[in-house]
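Two folds, back to back.
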Amino acid sequence: MKKEEKTNIVISFILGALVAGSGVYFGMSSKKGGSDNEYISRLVEADEVIAREASGTMDYDKAVDGFISGGLDKWSHWIKQDSETENMTNYVNTSGTALASGFSIDIADDGNILVTNVEEGLAAYNSGIRTGDKITMITGNDVAATGYEHIANKLLGKKDTTVELTIDRNGEKMDIVFKRDNCYIYDVEQSFINDDIGYIKVKDYENFANDEFRDAVSNMLDCKGIIIDLRNNGGGIVENAVDMCGYFCRNGSVVLHGEKIEDRTVTTPEQDYLLTTKVVILVNDKTMSSAEIQAAIMKEYYSDTVLVGTQTGGKGVFQQNVKLESGGTLRYTVGYMTVGDMECWNGVGITPDVVVEMDEELIGTDKDTQLKKAIDLLS
């Protein structure tokens, strides 16, 4: 293939991704460097120079992503379509079975299941599985012949159930009965401090987060204070974050603004309970997006709220995903968010009422000074 043809294919791929996602026509021509858009012409010319003179090989996946994120904002990306193998690996490794049993996997070069890690003392280790093992058979089915992406999930199952495996360990074959452990993966965790202070850790706003948050607050109706820990919470579904605020206020809302879409307001619903207790919300620089929405609504609409920690991450914009006909997904920024009289916090973050600097590694330890400050404020 000639360099000219390769260049036009590459640029067409970039443009095809953008055209499929936005419907914009750039006036791309099939001639060398031929475009009605000077910026696209520069891409073509730069690619030709790189192909001819630059050291190394161009990574066009990164080039497409860079074209979007560099040209729009850091939250916008081209996301390469995950393969079935990658999807299966992620599915198994983030499951309650893998986490509780203490193992992780990937595909081996020969198509079998490679055990990439085993934690000593947990179910996989106790069943005889070790790091570096290859699982070649599951319940009598050949892994490589069946296909990794079709059989790896057979490792998963309910607590105390078993599955028969054939293991290849450095060329030696052995049969193992793997007795599984399992755990429910919570988006929201709850506990009590000194019996009269409720503690709710919101890790994200996906899956069953709303149900789990409702369960938590229903157990804390008589508490004299509640700590809501949003540290290291990168966000999630906006509506879920707003719904959680409905247990404390009836009129809270976030407005989603956009240049090319109509503004949309998401308002707190009427929940089963309306608490009147004092609330301390813990935040840090990894509190972002929907977590910042929850912190902002509580601060603006629930007077007994105190924010403690460090400046939040400052992601005050929201994105939309569009699958592209040319492959992958285009994730692009649609607009920005505001809460009450608070200005959009994008790129700035939300300043806590009480600033407590602390290393992230200390979260959850006996040196968690941010948590200690929250307890002091509620005691």
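---
second:
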Amino acid sequence: MSDTNVQRRQFLKTSVGAAAVAIAPGMLLFDMAHGKTEAVSSKVRWGMLIDTANCADGCNDCVKACNKENGLSGGLSPTDSQWIRKVELKDMRSGREVSLPMMCQHCAEPPCVDVCPTGASFKRADGIVLVDKHTCIGCRYCMMACPYKARSFVHEPLHDQKPDVPRGKGTVESCTMCVHRVDKGQQPACAEACPNKSILFGNLNDPESEISRKIRTVASTQVRADLELNTGIRYQGI
């Protein structure tokens, strides 16, 4: 083996070791890029309970808040990203109609992560499912695997991006549950903006949290519960 190859291998070995020491257990480079310095924990699982009875037909405040918070254009063209959308459901037997917001469901067993060939799609220890734009190659396997059609592909160059929300042409993206806000102890923008307080955000793993107490007292369901993905987003009234 040449001296050059030996030196190259030694450099890589040293670099990987240094990176492992520098990053705390449970930390990801994605978190470091967002300024997060503490490891997330599986003791927490962030989720939402959405009350469809209070979700007004025609109200798009959650969608507008998401667009503003994350620097999205709001669907000005067919190729624009949409991280949250309002869906109208109708029971054909009874005629009953409900309106609800649909976004990434932050599954405990996310199909998007399973099919990603580079590891760009990943789930944090606290249950938030994200995409690392640095390793996403734009293959869109995750878009095909998602049963909720919750992911978008960035077709055009982006300008005036939000510093806390890295995006990029040729990559896939979806609802991040406003991870940059959550890591600061804040609510996701959609939950904060809902005028009827239809979106309850909290820790599903804490039996004393407001969301856990509510789930114990009301009937709630997961969209496509038959897939056994154990979603972090639950719905009341459907």
